[in-house]
Design goal:
This protein is α+β, with helices and mostly antiparallel strands and 574 residues long. 35% of the residues lie in helices and 23% in strands. It is elongated. Bound molecules: adenosine-5'-diphosphate (ADP) and magnesium ion. Magnesium ion (MG) binds next to α2.
Length: 574
């Protein structure tokens, strides 16, 4: 083994910097946090080449004197704490005194700043981790930090960066999180001089959500405000219908700091109880207040995760607060909760006696063998519409008789399957069926969704949407796919664009298939929706004509079947 040596300060700085500065978004986060700590009312973030070439954060905060500014770029220099005891009650976002030094170790920095007591400001350049120039500069009170050529001298790090789109996505995410956590502060994000995000100062959480995500979400928020076990929980939770396919709109803020944690997310999900369909994630903006000492933020350099003295208390307080919010909601709240519980009960009346007897599978016979257009024979063997009428159970399942016995059809999964095949036929023929709206509808997309929409616009047209751009982030919807006629156009598009966010990535060529799946899911009748006899019969008859009636496009079963034999065994007739 080689000799043990002390590392040079330079090298130590470089190693430590890696923890704080992982990608452009980490630089943006640190600089914006400094602006917030400086009491800024407005913060502007500008990036070039997703931040790899240049990141500039300007604020109208308190600014720095020349001495402070020169010290600030050194390691472990901070104005935010002095004594170990200060760690017990940290009121600022920063306190470790590492960020500027870490950034300086990975890039060239220019700081232009003036504090209110000084007549003249300062311009400071830091290159290769060392101060390379200090001069006077006429500048308003506040600070502008410009970071150039990040990781130019650490090619290994640079190599780990993802595509420009991905990095910009991370930058946007970092700004969004802080903008949600500080609705009172104005935020602007520009990428290559184009505005990506703009939210004026002085907003409350509702207005902030409206600025960032548009009206559909803002109008669907329920107030959360509850305290228990020493934890105060405030904020907003969205109606269950606005849940998403990914947990990308689930925010937690503690002491102005955006944080994440499985326990926190679970608390929210638990609060929705059975309201959320499986695989859907709630949308919520949760602010936590804890007593001094109930939390430690000094766990990780980036402070994205915090440690709570009593996880359970925090979890339960969140769940309780969200549950209370859902209960207050006029529609879709308590009612839907009771409905979900009712499903179990109602089904119990019909099938829970079957215990393990339930069998998932085909209606009966081989659905694929049924030639299209022969519904009288019942396609897949269903004969509900010629024999006894179907019964809707718990507004979610259709109970029908088949040749073999008893069949429960999941109305949503069945409709999804029917719509999916209809869409696939339209796609194959190149002539999508479009249902024009009587009055075109305007819709504002969320920050970050606009680019996604534009990328996917041709595909959306292919499945039957007729839309045009109608201003910054705003769409004019003229028509929706006929398969979805009768559905709320804005909710439909919000759902689909949300799903696309998961599936679409730069370079992915074919999104038709996932798009068709997503569209059929959002256009299909939902569990909990009452269906008329006509609707039930036409759904069953359409299902009978499907090529693959046994599974929805996501692979979940459409039907559950009990054979006569199984039923007779239950009744001890065999
Ligand atoms: P920390 O935020 O943990 O203190 P930083 O390295 O991020 O460490 O910043 C060092 C110091 O520089 C801060 O404590 C603060 O006094 C000063 N500073 C940094 N950015 C700003 C800013 N935008 N406005 C005013 N002061 C700033
Ligand atoms: Mg800082």
């Amino acid at each position: 083994m080689a000799q043990v040596r002390m590392l040079s300060d330079d090298l130590v700085a470089k190693i430590a910097a890696g923890e704080v500065v992982e990608r452009p978004a980490s630089v943006v986060k640190e600089l914006v946090e400094n602006s917030l700590d400086a009491g800024a009312v407005r913060v502007t973030v500008e990036v070039e080449e997703s931040g790899q070439r240049e990141i500039r954060v300007s604020d109208d905060g308190c600014g720095m004197s020349r001495d402070d500014c020169t010290r600030a770029v050194k390691r472990y220099s901070t104005s935010k704490i002095r004594f170990a005891s200060d760690l017990e009650h940290i009121a600022t976002l920063g306190f470790r005194g590492e960020a500027l030094a870490a950034i300086a170790a990975a890039a060239t920095i220019e700081i232009v700043t003036r504090c209110s007591g000084d007549d003249c400001g300062t311009r400071l350049i830091v290159q290769d981790g060392r101060v390379a120039g200090v001069e006077d500069s006429g500048t308003p009170v506040g600070t502008t930090v410009t970071v150039r050529d990040l990781f130019l001298r650490t090619p290994a790090r640079r190599k780990f960066l993802k595509s420009a789109g991905t990095e910009l996505g991370h930058v946007t995410g970092a700004v969004m999180r802080l903008a949600v956590a500080h609705p009172g502060v104005g935020f602007t994000l520009r990428s290559s001089r184009k505005e990506v995000l703009g939210a004026p100062p002085g907003q409350g959480i509702d207005e902030r959500v409206r600025s960032l995500y548009g009206g559909l979400l803002a109008d669907g928020l329920l107030e959360v405000d509850d305290s228990s076990r020493g934890v105060r929980v405030t904020g907003r939770a969205a109606k269950a219908e606005l849940a998403r396919g990914q947990p990308d709109r689930l925010f937690f803020v503690v002491g102005g700091r955006p944080v994440t944690g499985r326990m926190l997310s679970h608390g929210v999900t638990a609060g929705y109880d059975a309201l959320l369909p499986r695989g859907r994630y709630p949308v919520a903006f949760i602010f936590l207040e804890l007593e001094d000492g109930a939390m430690d933020v000094n766990v990780h350099p980036t402070k994205r995760e915090v440690r709570f003295a009593d996880d359970r208390a925090v979890h339960d307080a969140i769940a309780r607060a969200v549950r209370a919010a859902m209960g207050k909601s006029p529609a879709g709240g308590r009612e839907a909760l009771e409905h979900a519980a009712g499903v179990r009960e109602a089904l119990g009346r019909y099938i829970s006696v079957s215990g393990s007897g339930g069998r998932q599978g085909l209606l009966s016979g081989d659905a694929t063998a049924a030639p299209a257009g022969t519904p009288r024979q019942g396609g897949a063997g269903l004969r509900a519409w010629e024999g006894p009428p179907p019964v809707q159970v718990a507004q979610s399942y259709l109970l029908v008789e088949s040749d073999e016995g008893l069949v429960l059809v999941d109305q949503h999964a069945a409709h999804e399957r029917v719509l999916y095949e209809r869409l696939s036929r339209g796609l194959a023929s190149g002539r999508p069926e479009c249902q024009l709206l009587l009055v075109p509808i305007e819709m504002e997309l969320a920050v970050g969704e606009w680019e996604l929409y534009r990328e996917c616009a041709p595909e959306l047209a292919r499945v039957g949407f007729e839309m045009e751009e109608f201003g910054a982030r705003t769409l004019l919807i003229r028509g929706i796919p006929a398969a979805a006629s009768g559905r709320d156009a804005r909710e439909l598009i919000a759902g689909i664009v949300g799903d696309l966010g998961e599936t679409w990535k730069p370079g992915v060529k074919d999104i038709t298939e996932p798009l068709a799946r997503s569209l059929s899911c959002h256009a299909a009748v939902k569990a909990g929706e009452r269906m008329s006899m006509e609707e039930m019969k036409s759904l069953l008859s359409d299902l009978g004509r499907c090529e693959l009636a046994q599974a929805c496009p996501h692979g979940r079963p459409v039907t559950v079947c009990w054979t006569l034999e199984e039923i007779e065994k239950r009744f001890r007739r065999r």
